[in-house]
Specification:
The chain is an alpha+beta fold. The protein contains 14 helices and 18 strands. The strands form four sheets. Strands 7-6-11-10-9-8 form a six-stranded antiparallel beta sheet. Helix 8 runs antiparallel to helix 10 and helix 9 runs antiparallel to helix 10. The longest helix is centred in the middle third of the chain and has 109 residues. The relative contact order is 0.06.
Length: 624
Amino acid sequence: MHKFVMTFSLSRWLWPALPLHQRIRRMRLGYAGLALALIAVALWAGGEIGRRRAEALLETQARIDASLNAALLRTVLEKYRALPFVLSKDSGLATALAVNNPGALDPLNRKLELLATGTKAAVIYVIGIDGIATAASNWREPTSFVGNDYRFREYFQGAMAKGQAEHFALGSVSKKPGLYISQRIDGSTGPLGVVVVKVEFDEVEADWSTSGKPSYVVDDRGIVLITSIPSWRFMTIGEIAPDRLAAIRESLQFGDAPLRPLPFDSVGTLGEGLDLVRAVMPGNAGKSAFLDVRTAVPTTGWQLQHLVPLKPAVDAGVREARLVALLILLPLLAGAAFLLRRRQVIALRMLEEQQARQELERRVTERTLDLSQARDRLQAEITGHRNTEQKLQSVQQDLVQANRLAILGQVAAGVAHEINQPVATIRAYADNARVFLDRGQTAPASGNLESIAALTERIGSITEELKTFSRKGRAAAEPTGVKDVIEGAVMLLRSRFAGRMDTLDIALPPAGLEVLGNRIRLEQVLINLFQNALEAVAPKGEEGRVEVRVASDAGAVTVTVSDNGPGILPEIREGLFTPFNTSKEGGLGLGLVISKDIVADYGGRMEVASDSHGTRFTVYLKKA
């Protein structure tokens, strides 16, 4: 607080209200003028430095490019120079020239054709001692050299005189320029002829063209021989004396080429092998500045000249240098401006802080009131949510209790339904046992009592299974014999349907056929199906039939129960597997629902088909 008061008082003493604004305005104008002057000087100095650096880098790169182009040209030349020498030592070629038999020239033509294709030479041909071409790689073409007279060519005359020669000229037949490399062929009696390889530089010129920087080769007379700009070919880098020019035209070395000077203006020499020129490029109207780098082509009398555009590189260097100068100067100017601005900000900050404190106090008061009101609303909402939660818990408990009572009702109805058959059977066995005891027949009575004991155990198993069902549990699946399940179900129904069991037509499966399930639960399924089928055919008397068939394949066992009863009504069939849906008087409608659930527990399924001729239930179970 003391620091704030002291700073505020000092700023008021140093900067009175009116002079302060005038001083700030004058200071800003003066600083802006100084900054502009510094920027102008930095741009000029950066441009000069950038230009010099760009020229130096451009010169270095131009010399490297020129050396690479010269090396490429030398590589091409050396590749073809060995070929005439090797051919001159070929005994077959010498023999063909010595014999001068047309039959011996055909193999030579083919050989030269193959060599020209493999080496990519423009043409290879052999000239006899009389100057007439006797064999050539292009002997098949309309422009074949065979039979042409080349005595006037310097490469023929030079090879005959010195043993070898090189001569750049325009082809008299193909009208394509190239270098003719010749080698004399000597025999035992003297010279036999000359072998010539013509090298064209189309690929070299194409490689130079891709760089976008003109390159060309001139001979010792200053005539352009090889160039990346086709329109410059056979032009000159200076004026040629009239007498020498007439001799060149008379030799037909360059055909009828005008031999005009290149469109260059020399500006000055920058160093050894380096000139500054202005040239007109094809497609451009005005002249542009170029660095002209000269370098000798080794093993030849030629000189390679490489032109590099000066303006793009220099402009880029100047821009880069000026950008660097600005990147250095602008942060300094910005820092100075920041320091100047800070003096003004310090004076204003105290007032802003005071206003900010007042505004903050006002907002805190308003926010405190809002928070108090929000707290009261939140407390009321919390109370309402608690009341709602209590009501929701009460409703949930009622729903759980209602659901539990419904499940218990279904289980109780199911127990009563499922043990009805065993109880009826026990009653029948008990009545028979009493009759046997009255007659003194203890053995049959004992058998009936044993059956009653087994049935009571069976009832206990059924009730245990139903209790397990009520706990959402299931008996584990195990291999169960299908024959045992069918026989158990028939035994439970025998007493209830005494006298009508002949209606059942059962084809028992073999004893080894087993499915995955539980015997007691599968018996419940078949009891329901057998009972429904027997009740359906009861009105037909002796004509009623219930067929039970078992079939199996690689992974499943199918049990089919068919009857010839009246069928199931459509409205009943739609909800056949819905609880409490039944067409029987006094029926609960749970038998088929429980049966379908039992089959599904063991990975199977149950299907039904019914019409006016009867009903067929099909049970699919997994084979053990």
